[in-house]
Amino acid sequence: xxxxxxxxxxxxxxxxxxxxxxxxxxxxxxxxxxxxxxxxxxxxxxxxxxxxxxxxxxxxxxxxxxxxxxxxxxxxxxxxxxxxxxxxxxxxxxxxxxxxxxxxxxxxxxxxxxxxxxxxxxxxxxxxxxxxxxxxxxxxxxxxxxxxxxxxxxxxxxxxxxxxxxxxxxxxxxxxxxxxxxxxxxxxxxxxxxxxxxxxxxxxxxxxxxxxxxxxxxxxxxxx
Length: 224
Prior knowledge:
224 residues; alpha/beta; five-stranded mixed beta sheet; 29% helix; 28% strand
């Protein structure tokens, strides 16, 4: 990637759309939600970045992405994302990956790493020797007819309470680390902050991501 090419990173979430561009230190954000269409997202990004300079875009999308294109409508947003022409709407090149994959790439430190995104839902991705592989673990069965996401996603946090939610996060991290045969587990997403005061409880090889991981991952996406 040319050194003078500036990247705008868009992290699309079920609650907020977060933005950061090359050369800027302070991110911007605006509300998303179940009524936000891709056109509304583009309009929000354009309004928030009216005085920003960028040449290309990296976008983290809250759903499966196949060959750089959303493959399924998101659970927590409006409709129309699958066939939307993002590069045409933004009038610049756009690279799209699953939002968990973008965070995983940003927080990767080497070896085999499993990323679990603790947010509105449950995102997941695997990075092996620098190679990124998005995963869809959220809706696999876990307990009592419920899925991993039912327990450690936002709905699980609200249903179980923070204390029991933390126990299930630890249990799931241990189970999936063994199943995926990884060196480390990286816990990210908005609800990972609830684990900061309980780092000592985390299994060996499990660490917490930072808010900057998604943005760093977006920058790395254009450096590959």
